[in-house]
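pinging the channel bc i need a second pair of eyes. not urgent but kinda urgent?? the chain im working w is below, pasted from the shared doc
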Amino acid sequence: MKFKPQDSTLGRRFFRLSLLVAAFLIVVISLIQVFISYQEKLHSVQETFTDIRNTEVKGISTALWNFSLPELEALTDGIANHPLITYVEIRETSQNVLYSAGREKLTQNVIEDAIPLVYESNGVKTSIGTLLMQVDRSKIWETLWDDIVEVLIFRIVTILVMIFLFVFLIDHQITRYLHYVSEILQNYDLSHLEIPLKIDKPDNNDEIDQLVHAFNDMRQRVLFANRQQNESERKFATLLGNLPGMAYRCKYDLNWTMEVVSAGCYSLTGYQPDDLIENNVISYSQIIYFEDRDMVWNSIHSQIANSQSFEISYRIVTKSGSMRWVWERGSVIYSEDHSISAIEGFISDITEKKQQERELEAIASMSYAIRSAETSKATLTIIMEQTTSLLSTDGCMIELIEPETGGSVIQVANGIYVNAVGSHIPEGKGLNTYIRETLKPYLNNDAIDDPRVYLTEIIKKSPAVCGAPLIAQDELIGFLWIGRTDEISNRVVSVLTAIADIAANAIHRIRLFQQTEKI
């Protein structure tokens, strides 16, 4: 990249500082010069006073003794014409002013000298008066002004020339290269670290060259570290992407605020990883089923108090509204001050396993309860209640076919179907028509749109409807129905079919028992 001279912030700053320094030096040097010149003027005034004392006083004393006024005036005017002296007066011993010359007498801001006038005759000295001379200090400053201006201009020109030369040399040798390097670094494309930094300058191994070398060394280290990090991240992402669950890192707070979430989050919860990170859309605590939230917090808190890791199973609600069972294993990350900085772990879906366990337990419990039932009504009630509990339905009902009419009657019902008990459904009417024709389960998650609906008001309360045939000894004897406000899965259909088989056999057994008693 070719060097192009450009405006340099550092150069401008250096130039401004140089001007400030120059101004300061000019002022200081000028003040010193003025002070020296003023002192020289004061010294000149004192020398003038001394010269007059040595040369003029004797003549003035003689003229005053002889009372020769013309001579006295001539001598006085001669002194008053001196460039520095502004006022002269001669006084008698009685302090009467005999003669004065120059401007008016000053009382302040003045330098003056009073010389006694003494006449000596035959070795006898007689005091006959006083010679008073004044110098106006302002006049001294007036005489200094021209010198001050001359000195000031000379100093300014001299220092400015030196500064411009110095700044030029600094810019030519240092600041332009610094500006050039700064511009390259600011515009350096970090995605192309393989391109070294070069400047159009002979390599003299000076500080600028060392700066370039240091950057290129750092660039190589960063490039190597980035390659290693990218490879590690690729392996880690591949590993997490293939795991059947969600790996995470979260804060230890009531929201379980996620900091890192793997891609498996979507398949587990229905939310994208970014939705959970820093609670952007929803916190993980809100995904946990509300009845399990306190249990999850208390259990994890209790476990990590005694160990660094924990295991727990609980329920979550996905974005679609369905409920899932999950198993979580995690460990605590401690900071340097031994406080909990984060929790890292893995969450997997165990819904199917939990459902299978519940189904087996429920079916076994249902079989035992049915065997203990003594009446058909009790049997139907047990089947209904167990089905409701096992499948978490909003309503359940058992509909049995009347052999005499071919129609069917709802024998027992609960939940949203409770008002349907005793309702008669003619043959060829209602949703059971599909089951009669196919002997297969019926499933519709929007059953209200099915034209075969007979009990419309009931179906409106639970759009998702599933029914299974009750078949005993190859004969269709009725139907087992469940309803939900949320979607019914195929897994539920399979479980309902299994319950229907057990229920049909139990109903058939009760009927046979009742027929035997009549005989």
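so The chain has 14 helices and 15 strands. and The chain has three domains: 1-192, 243-349, 355-518. — does that match what u expected or am i reading it wrong
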